[in-house]
Amino acid sequence: MILTGIIHIMRKGNPYNQAFCGCRHCTRRYLKQLYRLLLNIMDSFSRIFQTALQLAIVGLVWAVSEAVVRFTHLPVSSGVLGLFLMLALLGSGVIKVGMVERGAKWVLGELVFFFIPIMVSVLQYRDLLMSEGWQLVLTIAVGTALVMISTALTLNFCYRWKRRLHKKLHA
After folding, report:
1. Which of 64, 65, 117, 169 could form a disulfide with 81 if both were Cys (CB 3.0 to 4.6 A apart)?
2. Measured in Å, how far apart are the chain's first and last C-alpha atoms?
3. Using the 8-state DSSP alphabet, how is residue 73 labeled?
């Protein structure tokens, strides 16, 4: 978007550059285009910076949960503990949803790239995959089904709770 704006302004076939005579009207039109372009650039940098900050917040929560698991020797993954810690922070209002929403959407949008190293690792153990592969496929299928079912039930519960709360507050 930014690059197309620059190309649009600098392109030789642009009537603004060909007919730029230096009068007030042409100068004003050119400055308006340049101003819009600069606003787009600033908006893009602002969104990138905001996403980076939100990812830093999510990373900080994960790092805290990792430290807690290491020092207390809890028999739970730091990712799971971080999930519950983030849920507690969001539920208590310490962290607002808007403070991590854009970063979380970015991570979810690029989630497929986080699984590429896992697939490369699986392909290194081809013999094991051939001999014990059916167990792996069964585990993945059952795990996926359980995650989907638990997600659906959780969302259903949350939407019902939100609807009841909304009716209670606005009735």
Report:
1. 65
2. 47
3. T
Tell me which DSSP letter residue 98 carries.
G
79 CB-near residues (< 8 Å, 6+ apart): 62, 65
Task: Quote the tokens at residue 36.
Answer: 């819009």
What are 51's two structure tokens?
């996403």
Buried b (16+ CB within 10 A) or exposed e, 46-66: eeeeebeebbebbeebbebbe
Instruction: Give the Cβ contact number of residue 69 at 10 Å.
Output: 18
Lookup: tokens for 66: 């990792």
Rg (CA), the chain: 26
CB 55, CB 72: distance < 8 Å = no
What is residue 14's three-state secondary structure? coil
User: Which residue type occupies 170?
Assistant: H
Q: Quickly list H helices, the chain.
A: 2-10, 15-18, 24-72, 78-92, 101-109, 111-114, 116-124, 126-170
Question: pLDDT tens-digit profile of 47-79?
Answer: 889 999 999 999 999 999 999 999 999 898 888
Q: Which two tokens stand for residue 3?
A: 């690059």
pTM exceeds 0.70: no
